[in-house]
């Protein structure tokens, strides 16, 4: 793999069949409404071509509910082309465009495409095929209805039509009868080339999908590829003006960070507050296209500080799915809101009780992600608190976020146990971020997050009372929380957060340090199958101190100022060799804490791990027989956080904005922008750690603005 235009382009030369799927992820295009995999035009379901529609879900009876791939409108086949002789593929991050040039034995093909950021229903392509004289090559372009589906088929009917030069396919999903219309119009450019305009609408868009898609195609054709491309480029330009981070002295890191931001941005919903960003972005149906805590803890921080409108949409998605969270709490016998571990469009939990299959017996393994990862509700409250603090957007509280935080506090109060003898609240039978240790007591991360959630809920509700007494009273009439506030306050004060033990180590959960202390290498040596699941009842890791992903260390990142640096260092050093980083969420937490401790070499290593995950494809692809490949927007967000919160040391809070840089030795300069409480700031750090924070006025070095 090579990069041209070093820090803005991904360029791959040569065609390797084994990399087709990886390139489908690497060369993704998208606009938050749909994501189009970076496979070639002639590729179909075998090569995992896909056009995933965000928020459009379907369930085939007896199978997992997952998002729907639309019929593929860019599909273009070649007959008589012969073998591939040479191939190159380029992704221009700055403009969100993919291009390919392929020399077959009998024809040379080139194309460029974009999924419009200016109009989320539209994708456009320019295609050129130059056959060798006399070669009988036939190029056909159409809409592919042979779809890559993990738990399909999702369309109970698919109807084709062609009218006024527009080809159309209308599909109706089996479960909810959602209508998906894909229309394509072709404009000949010369003897061997054409432009193609593809429009996608669904009945969830509030319009009649087929006429809307047909009209959009014709309108696009009339505008032309260049004009549409310019409007699209202008939107990407605006995105980059907000989120780009410039790193001088390290092109590798610069490219990896931009690439991470690109992947994150292409999945971001700018058009709607009814959808969020699934754990695999829009790259496929993996993880049922569901939204996890990944969004709140790993992606939202980027948007909150660079594009608060997107952040607001992500928060409103949780507000709109509160009913699902209430239903889930009630299902388990609790009060309040227990958000879905794997959330789909109505907040229904797509997470099954048996998420993994035992590779030895072929039997499903009971997992407790859905039932016991109660921290999800705290993660959402935490994100709302940070959003409110960093944007000052009070309206989101009135529009639903105050209700969410109250219902989450209520849930935690109903979940907790009050230990009379110890005079403290405890959270028993939970699963923390480390999914290899399920159903534990007093997971440090969970307890600390819940404490924060209770505090945030009380602060927000107090503020609501002061600043919007009518809204406060209306909320109280609706859910009657006022009488419970004191109990939540008391619980926040008396909730047990495991302190460091005699060795200075914060135990991940009760009894953690009594588990077998085996090295990761030795544990892996015990495996009988390369994809066997290490968690669950019989998993090799469950009886040991090996953890799947950052847990205590993630807590230390979030609550750094709770502990002396020495304790943080000790715990980082303790957990680092015991952590498998089996989740793409893990590496950034280690990078963030290491950077704040001044261990820039370690921080850099973990930063690069998180920033390159979608470039190298070096992530877990299978758990048991479950395919979990795709893109990793949480790691993408983690890459930004590692630089901005880690190396640059940006903090917000009661002291305002502060920057305490610790750049890697070879970095000469880091520059980025944020928006804090409505004011845009430009932050510029040089290799001597001199900081310029520019807003309406300039400030020097680390001082609050
Ligand atoms: O949310 C994560 C979880 O923490 C680990 N397994 C994968 C999920 C989706 O990324």
Report on the architecture of this protein:
With 705 residues, the chain is α+β, with helices and mostly antiparallel strands. It folds into 2 domains: 9-211, Beta-galactosidase, Chain A, domain 5 (Distorted Sandwich); 243-686, Glycosyltransferase (Alpha/alpha barrel), CATH 1.50.10. It is built from 20 helices and 28 strands. The strands form 8 sheets. The chain has a 9-stranded antiparallel β-sheet. The protein has a 5-stranded antiparallel β-sheet with strand order 16-25-26-27-28. A 4-stranded antiparallel β-sheet has the order 2-3-4-5, with helices on one face. The protein binds 5-hydroxymethyl-3,4-dihydroxypiperidine. Residues 279, 287, 292-294, 433, 435, 583, 585, 634 line the site of 5-hydroxymethyl-3,4-dihydroxypiperidine.
């Amino acid at each position: 793999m090579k990069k041209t235009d070093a820090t803005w382009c991904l360029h791959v030369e040569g065609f390797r069949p084994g990399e087709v799927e990886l390139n489908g992820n690497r060369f993704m295009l998208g606009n938050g409404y749909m994501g189009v995999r970076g496979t070639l035009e002639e590729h179909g379901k075998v090569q995992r071509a896909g056009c995933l529609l965000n928020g459009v879900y379907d369930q085939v009876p007896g199978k997992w509910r997952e998002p729907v791939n639309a019929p593929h409108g860019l599909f273009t086949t070649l007959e008589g082309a012969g073998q591939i002789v040479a191939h190159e593929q380029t992704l221009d991050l700055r403009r969100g465009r993919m291009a390919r040039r392929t020399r077959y034995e009998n024809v040379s093909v080139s194309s460029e495409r974009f999924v419009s950021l200016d109009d989320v229903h539209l994708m456009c392509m320019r295609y050129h095929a130059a056959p060798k004289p006399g070669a009988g090559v036939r190029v056909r372009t159409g809409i592919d209805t042979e779809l890559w589906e993990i738990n399909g088929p999702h369309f109970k009917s698919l109807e084709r039509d062609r009218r006024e030069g527009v080809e159309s396919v209308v599909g109706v999903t089996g479960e909810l009868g959602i209508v998906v219309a894909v229309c394509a119009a072709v404009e000949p450019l010369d003897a061997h080339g054409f432009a193609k305009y593809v429009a996608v609408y669904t009945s969830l868009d509030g319009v009649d999908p087929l006429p809307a898609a047909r009209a959009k195609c014709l309108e696009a054709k009339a505008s032309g590829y260049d004009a549409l491309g310019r409007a699209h480029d202008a939107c990407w330009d605006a995105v980059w003006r907000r989120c780009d981070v410039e790193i001088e002295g390290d092109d590798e890191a610069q490219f990896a960070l931009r690439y991470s931001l690109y992947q994150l941005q292409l999945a971001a919903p700018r058009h709607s507050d009814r959808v969020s960003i699934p754990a695999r972005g829009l790259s496929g149906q993996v993880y049922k296209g569901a939204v996890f805590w990944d969004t709140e803890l790993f992606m939202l921080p980027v948007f909150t500080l660079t594009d608060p409108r997107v952040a607001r949409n992500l928060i409103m998605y949780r507000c709109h799915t509160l009913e699902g969270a209430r239903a889930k709490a009630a299902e388990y016998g609790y009060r309040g809101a227990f958000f879905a571990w794997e959330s789909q469009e109505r907040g229904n939990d797509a997470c099954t009780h048996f998420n993994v299959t035992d590779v030895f017996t072929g039997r499903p393994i009971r997992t407790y992600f859905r039932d016991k990862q109660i921290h999800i509700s705290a993660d959402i409250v935490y994100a709302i608190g940070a959003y409110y603090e960093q944007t000052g957007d009070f309206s989101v509280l009135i529009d639903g976020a105050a209700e969410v935080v109250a219902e989450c506090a209520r849930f935690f109060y109903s979940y907790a146990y009050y230990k009379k003898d110890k005079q403290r609240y405890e959270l028993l039978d939970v699963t923390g971020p480390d999914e290899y240790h399920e159903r534990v007591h007093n997971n440090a991360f969970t307890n600390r997050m819940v404490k924060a959630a209770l505090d945030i809920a009380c602060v927000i509700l107090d503020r609501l009372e002061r600043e919007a007494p009518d809204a406060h009273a209306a909320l109280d009439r609706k859910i009657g929380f006022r009488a419970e506030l004191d109990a939540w306050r008391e619980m926040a004060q008396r909730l047990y957060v495991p302190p460091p033990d005699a060795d200075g180590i914060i135990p991940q959960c009760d009894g953690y340090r009594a588990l077998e202390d085996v090295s990761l290498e030795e544990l892996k040596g015990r495996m009988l199958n390369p994809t066997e699941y290490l968690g669950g009842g019989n998993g090799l890791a469950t009886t040991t101190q090996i953890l799947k992903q950052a847990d205590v260390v993630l807590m230390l990142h979030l609550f750094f100022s709770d502990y002396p640096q020495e304790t943080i260092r000790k715990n980082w050093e303790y957990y680092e060799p015991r952590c498998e980083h089996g989740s793409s969420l893990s590496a950034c937490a280690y990078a963030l804490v290491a950077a704040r401790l001044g261990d820039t070499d370690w921080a850099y290593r973990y930063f690069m791990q998180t920033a390159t995950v979608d470039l190298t494809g070096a992530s877990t692809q299978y758990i048991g027989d479950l395919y979990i490949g795709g893109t990793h927007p949480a790691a993408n967000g983690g890459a930004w956080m590692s630089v901005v919160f880690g190396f640059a040391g940006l903090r917000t809070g009661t002291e305002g904005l502060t920057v305490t840089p610790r750049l890697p030795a070879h970095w000469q300069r880091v520059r980025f922008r944020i928006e804090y409480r409505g004011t845009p700031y430009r932050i510029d750090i040089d290799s001597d750690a001199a900081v310029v924070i520019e807003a309406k006025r300039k400030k020097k070095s680390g001082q609050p603005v």
